[in-house]
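#help-structures
NK: newbie question, is this the right format to request a structure? protein is Regulator of G-protein signaling 16
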Amino acid sequence: MSCWMPGCPGLSMCQGLATLPITCLERAKDLKTRFGILLHKSELGHRIGTSSKLQLGSRQRDSSREVLEWRESFDQLLKSKTGVTAFHTFLKTEFSEENLDFWLACEDFKKTRSKTKLASKANRIFEEFVQSEAPREVNIDHETREITRKNLSGATSACFNEAQAKTRTLMEKDSYPRFLKSTSYQDMTKQATSRGTSKRSHT
């Protein structure tokens, strides 16, 4: 609305705005910008929220199938990151998580390409898990311990193979069956089964 004429209704408004401090005008502009951003975020959040629900549903189906696959074999359990985490939590209750930690350390060790890093990692793993009276000593026989010690002199990616295999067998024959019978895993399978049943009833 133009306000060049005296007595124009918009004149007082224009004069009022002119007399406002610059900080007030800047604040008003800032508020307008913020409201615009909030509105945009709200719309974006709604779109993301809808997309996330769809993705979550897919992830739940995948995780349900995964949980049930763990009982098929120990290999299936070790292939699953969630399975390894659940198994590790169970081993903690039996105070034997060092076996899985050693196995995982060996898997990581095999991926090492640098010969310098290979040697330093080998010594660290040996001192932490393998040597007699190690802080987190794994349950392996004396012969395997000595073979592993000798392997350190010319450390290769295979120097823990025998010790790792013995530890894996121990977990598979001893801890794994108890894990499958544990209350925590039984609860997980019930939830996974109920999600599968619920999905079928809605299709």
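mod (FA): yep, format's fine, and the tokens are attached above. Residues 22-69 form the longest helix (48 residues).
NK: thank you!
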